[in-house]
Amino acid sequence: MKQFISEAEPDRNGTLTLTGKAFTYLRKVRRMREGDSLPVLLPGGRSVMMGADWIDDGKREIRLRLQTVPQQDENTAATATVELPAAAQTEIILLQWILKGAKTDTIVRQAAEAGVHIIVPVIGEFSVARKQNPAQQERFRRIIKEARQQSGSPIDTRITEPAPLSAVMQHTVPPLLGSGTVCGMCSEAAGTALSVHTFLAAKPGRIMLAIGAEGGISPAETAMLAAAGFKTIHFNTNVLRAETAALYAVAAMQTIRNEADQWQLPASIS
């Protein structure tokens, strides 16, 4: 379900008065009218339903109000805010080697839509794009916000500053490792690579994936990842473009992990 991501909490009356880009998004993109309602994700991560109870196109202002439901209480006539349940998802961290042109933008958008928790851009040895425009990080954040609003993702997707793998492995990866984390690097070569089911057999709560650039992951980088406990994963399918591999891998991991109990065969059959 599409949502609006608010940068401010409602006031004590339960209202949000929005102008500027927020007004444009709600009126031009979402085409909201007075009386319409939509899910709103608040800064603290709480998802609520809010309705448009006042719109002024001249002033370019729209006011949203928290929707409430009556509470059955014999002593009071209290109401409670309509809150939407948060979806439980396995945490995914994507180490994505930077691609040329706008391909990285595409991956960032797709990863945010899919509910990836953290995107870690890696300036790899085989990355064609070796330098990043300082304004690109802000564009990434804007892409993520737009993708989350469009997809309704409750995950507060974060993106780190682009860095070489050595810096990523030294500063970014260690705090994310733990007993509930599995780490994998995707390879187009089968070799001794694990299947996805084997990789996820322990039903991990956190998955860290490394996806290479157009030229793949260099031997030195592969050795660095292997030394940190990353297992090689191979998808038994066609050779995927670098910009396709990330979404394919994330989707496969989410599906197999989130539906693990449904895919367990009875002992008499297996």
In short:
The protein is an alpha/beta fold.
Question: What would you say this structure looks like, in words?
Answer:
The protein is of the alpha/beta class and 270 residues long. It folds into two domains: 4-81, Hypothetical PUA domain-like, domain 1 (Ribosomal Protein L25, Chain P, Beta Barrel), CATH 2.40.240; 91-258, Alpha/beta knot, CATH 3.40.1280. It has helices at 20-29, 103-114, 136-151, 165-172, 196-199, 219-227, 242-258, and strands at residues 4-5, 15-18, 37-41, 47-56, 61-66, 68-70, 79-81, 91-97, 118-122, 158-159, 181-186, 206-211, 231-233. Strands 10-9-8-12-11-13 form a six-stranded parallel sheet, sandwiched between helices. Helix 2 packs parallel to helix 3 (136-151) and helix 2 (103-114) runs parallel beside helix 7 (242-258).
What's the rounded overall pLDDT mean? 85
Low confidence ranges: 265-270
Q: Can you identify the CATH class of the largest domain?
A: Alpha Beta
| Main beta-sheet strand count, sense and barrel state | 6 strands, parallel
Q: Structural class per helix/strand content?
A: alpha/beta
- Number of E-type strands: 13
- The total tally of domains equals 2
Separation of termini? 38 Å
User: Which series of helices and strands comes N to C?
Assistant: EEHEEEEEEHEHEHEHEHEH
If you compute it from the alpha carbons, what radius of gyration comes out, rounded to the nearest whole angstrom? Answer: 22 Å
- The share of residues in extended strands comes to 15-25%
Estimate percent helicity.
Answer: 25-40%
Number of helices, counting only DSSP H or I runs of 4 residues or more: 7
Shape: elongated
The CATH architecture category of the largest domain equals: 3-Layer(aba) Sandwich
Q: Report strand order across the widest sheet.
A: 10-9-8-12-11-13
CATH topology of the largest domain: Alpha/beta knot
CATH superfamily of the largest domain: SPOUT methyltransferase, trefoil knot domain
